[in-house]
């Protein structure tokens, strides 16, 4: 588990209050990237090629929308404060993984078609969470297992259609 | 003509460079810079902040180049959907090819210099173009 990132990329921005639609669009995009919110109009991500580019383009978008924005590379002033920020991000992801686990368990008793659809949706959700998961919490593995289990149980069951091919269907759960 | 883009080439820049060479400027020469201020004068910059050929209105640079040079080839626009999702991953298009392409380009940028990435991805995009051209003519995935 990575506890610290050492280098961070910071985006400081201001946008006009009205119209509110672009402001909300930017807020949502930042959410999707899993940023830490350090203050009003100040967000941070651990710096790498991808996060720098992601924030760079959001900066460009904010400029085009008439806002003002600066992008910074930064080092934390102390390990303790960095760990507090990382812990907050880890907790946010933990809640997202927990929601996946809850949905996977709830779908276990659904009808087969519904189960398969939920499994697919949760797989995609896990991929999305994974991309903004910089400090993986313990729930990550549990969420992966829960979705794997659901996918396995929603695979087409050959015994239901042909009756006599238990072995072909895989028989024992792995 | 000379063209400039950011160093550390990824999918959008690689795809733009291919598109420029194939459709806009066969003699194109590319320079890679770390900062927009390093772009030499008289050079066309792409996929950088603050330039015409960048991300605009939710489009990635590849889509911007297609619009700017009025390239309407549907095969190129199909490739644009994949590049868009590999670059931005915002779910605007259904492009299951995108995550794979993203991995390939990320990996190449870890092992190769920028010039080499363009050398290697040229034939890759040529192949993709041919594949989607045939798919377009057939109306289904070609063998």
Automatic annotation (TrEMBL), chain A:
Residues of the ChrB N-terminal domain: 23-103
Residue ranges of the region described as Disordered: 147-174
Pfam families: ChrB_N
Protein name: ChrB N-terminal domain-containing protein
From TrEMBL, chain B:
InterPro entries associated with the record: ChrB_C (IPR018634)
Domain called ChrB C-terminal: residue spans: 3-131
The protein, known as: ChrB C-terminal domain-containing protein
């Amino acid at each position: 588990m990575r506890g610290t990132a050492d280098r961070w990329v910071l985006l400081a921005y201001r946008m006009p209050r009205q119209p509110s639609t672009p402001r909300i669009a930017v807020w949502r995009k930042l959410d999707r990237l899993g940023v830490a919110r350090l203050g009003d109009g100040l967000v941070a991500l651990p710096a790498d090629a991808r996060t720098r580019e992601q924030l760079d383009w959001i900066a460009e978008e904010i400029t085009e929308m008439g806002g003002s924005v600066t992008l910074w590379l930064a080092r934390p002033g102390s390990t303790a404060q960095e760990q507090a920020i990382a812990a907050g991000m880890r907790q946010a992801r933990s809640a997202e993984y927990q929601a996946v686990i809850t949905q996977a368990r709830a779908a276990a008793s659904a009808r087969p078609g519904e189960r398969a659809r939920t499994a697919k949706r949760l797989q995609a959700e896990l991929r999305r969470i994974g991309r903004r998961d910089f400090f993986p919490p313990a729930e990550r593995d549990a969420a992966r297992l829960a979705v794997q289990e659901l996918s396995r149980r929603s695979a087409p069951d050959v015994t239901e259609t042909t009756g006599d091919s238990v072995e072909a269907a895989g028989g024992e759960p792995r | 003509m000379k063209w400039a883009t950011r160093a550390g080439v990824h999918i959008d820049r690689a795809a733009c460079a291919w598109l420029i060479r194939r459709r806009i400027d066969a003699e194109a020469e590319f320079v890679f810079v770390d900062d927009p201020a390093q772009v030499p004068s008289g050079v066309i910059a792409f996929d950088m902040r603050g330039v015409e050929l960048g991300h605009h209105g939710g489009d990635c640079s590849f889509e911007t180049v297609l619009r700017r040079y009025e390239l309407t080839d549907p095969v190129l626009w199909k490739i644009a959907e994949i590049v868009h999702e590999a670059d931005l991953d915002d779910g605007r298009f259904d492009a299951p090819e995108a995550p794979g392409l993203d991995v390939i380009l990320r990996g190449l940028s870890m092992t190769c210099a920028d010039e080499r990435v363009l050398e290697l991805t040229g034939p890759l995009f040529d192949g993709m173009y041919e594949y989607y051209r045939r798919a377009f003519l057939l109306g289904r995935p070609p063998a």
